[in-house]
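User: I'm writing a short methods note and want a consistent example. For Glycosyltransferase, I'll paste the sequence; you return only the structure tokens, no commentary, since I'll be parsing the reply automatically.
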Amino acid sequence: MKTLELTKIRSIKVFEVELSKPLAPLTDLQGSEAVWLLVTLHGLPVGDVKFSNIIPRLEPDFLVEKIVTELGWNILLHLLEDSLLAQSGYSAHFIPEVTAGEKPERERLVSLLANLQTQEGIEPPCIAWRRSKATWSVTVGVCTRNGAAQLGTCLDALEKVDYPNFEILVIDNAPEDDSTWRVVERYNSPKIRYLIEPRPGVSWARNRAIKEAHGDIIAFADDDARPDSLWLLSLVAALQRPATSLVVGAAYPQEIKNEAQVHCAHNWGHDKGFVRREYSRRVEGFPANPFNTNTYGGAYNLAAWKGVLEKFGGFDVTLGRGTLSGSASDTDLFYRMVREYEAIVYEPTALVKISYPDDFQYLIKHDNLGASGYFAFLTKCFIKEPKNRLAALKMGVNGFFGWYLHRLTKEFSLAELPMLALRLKKLSPEQRILLSSIKGSLSGPRNYFRAVKRAKEIANT
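Assistant:
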């Protein structure tokens, strides 16, 4: 069994494995070419394992061996953190004897995990510490537009979130009918509020959530996301680290059943790893590139102090989904915050599971809007920040020629390029996505000017 190469795979079985409980065999693997394991310990992600597979059933002993081999240090670090927290009085939970700097030998880790599986019902220190930080009220903003079909899945997951004081604010953005309201009405929950934001665009909807929020902290999740039960505990604890203004969490696919979803897993940048990182100008050597804030994370999983979001004016209504720019409102917010020495933290234990589109036609449009939005964002920086014009221009040129055209010349020979317009129907979906992205990047600057004009019209109505 080999390490997984996503570009060569057509379908993947996705599983979640909790190490503090006895592992069960993985079955029903027929028809998939690979296995992707999200590995958690005490409910918190410690890593993932991806490998090709043709066996219809995988036994627990094999899984433990595979996990310990690839994630031994991650598991050890989690246990060390638990040990340190226990010494601070957060729990009487049994902690195996683990020494800093100790080599994570395979047999020892397997033994440690076996011991952990006998302690059901005792709260681990990592959870007790997070719970001790849950003293702030939270508003969870779920912005949706014609998303009734998937909204119920998100609300079901949010109702299971473990946090003592939070509300759910559903913002129905320029709805075409009352289908979203009918979904919310089914819950009949005092925790859920429903508001209509008539101005189209996700930034208008998010800004309405910021304005209407009752919580000290505002968290955002997409309408098709499934937040983990420990999601808010992890976000809020991370937000209380020194000088932290905003936290972005991790995203993990719910399923990968066809080539379109494999494309998303390989190209959408959600796989950011399981190491906590800080993005701040206070960090030595940062930022090497001030415009790469699109790599930090996204508004599909973030939390911030309400006062900080208000200070920065929320999300730019000329950017984001539902605008003529196409996307990048979160990229722009991150950029403005980091520019002013605010700290953004990536917290890998704050997890949401997301649904990847399974239709290449949707992906062609999606990646076009993504490229348009990013180049619209660079255009905004070029216009509004004279001191950074050269840097913004350089980023745009490098992004276009160094990324898109480089990929284009790898896909096609120079002799084929003039004939692409005549061969569109014969191109592979991946090639059509690439061409759509190039078209989006070229239209981004013009779309930004159109979006600015449109936002002014909307604001005046």
